[in-house]
Amino acid sequence: MARIYYDADANLELIQQKKIAVIGYGSQGHAHALNMRDSGCNVVVGLPKHSNSRAKVEADGLRVLTPAQAAEQADVIMLLIPDQHHRMVYEHEIKPGLAAGKMLMTAHGFSLHYAQIVPPANIDVAMVAPKSPGHMLRRLYVEGVGVPSLWAVHQDATGNAEALTLAYARAIGSTRAGVLRTTIGEETETDLFGEQAVLCGGLTSLIRNGFETLVEAGYQPELAYFECMHEVKLIVDLMYQGGMSYMRYSVSDTAEYGDYVSGPRVIDEHARAEMRKVLSEIQDGTFATRWITENQAGRPSFLAMRRKESQHQIEQVGRELRAMMPWLHPVTQQPGAPEEKAETPR
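^ that's the sequence the OP posted. Answer follows.
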């Protein structure tokens, strides 16, 4: 069993004595910065001079500097921008301001695990990865509770990296719920696999194929949407609360029986074999190389896939049906600026 660390295991004073720079003010960045400020920490935010988020930072009562200025002044630098920008921002903005004894942190291990960032040997390198979106991290902190996080020390140059990382986790509220120790490699590979095979890639492909199967068989697209997309939340919420057993307890016996006899026919050994391939490509760096190369080329395939998927019939039908349900607070897809887009669901 993994060891879980709580408030009693973390000395908040260690992080309160440091100057902290949060690079980025998107989903995670705003939550980390505000939670640490409210925990009595000395926090600045690093954003480009042209960033639209600078006004929001100032309105929230925080100092905003350029990433280079923030990194130079800080003892602890938390990089909370999308993975694809880590290397450029690190090389041009962060690295020049690093000095012996500082700590560089991330909330996801991708850029460290795949050597997009190669820190000098004389600094501490660590990760604190909340298992929730930033808005939830912030909301629960304000409510006096927290969300669990994963934490790891990648490089301990000072001999104090573990204690300081746990102090950081406490400052954002995660040790209230509990933080689990991992490694950069384990967090990165399991996170990418979960996103691709289950949470994003697996789920959206399952939903889309179910929708298409019903529509091709002559059923109304609206009914197909309700059965294959809309009700997913109902099932996921039940599992979120009490696991698969609670979900099966809550649905009808007919649904539960269909779960047992039909689910394994759809997600069968072939699907598991493909999952193993996906995992292998994550482990050996094939996926990372492909994604890095895609970004270097200007993201042509990525943008084409995004455009194609946004035009799928299920999206068109969904927009019309969600407009009939204002209590859902329906939104239209607005990707936003790179620095404002959340990293991993969470």
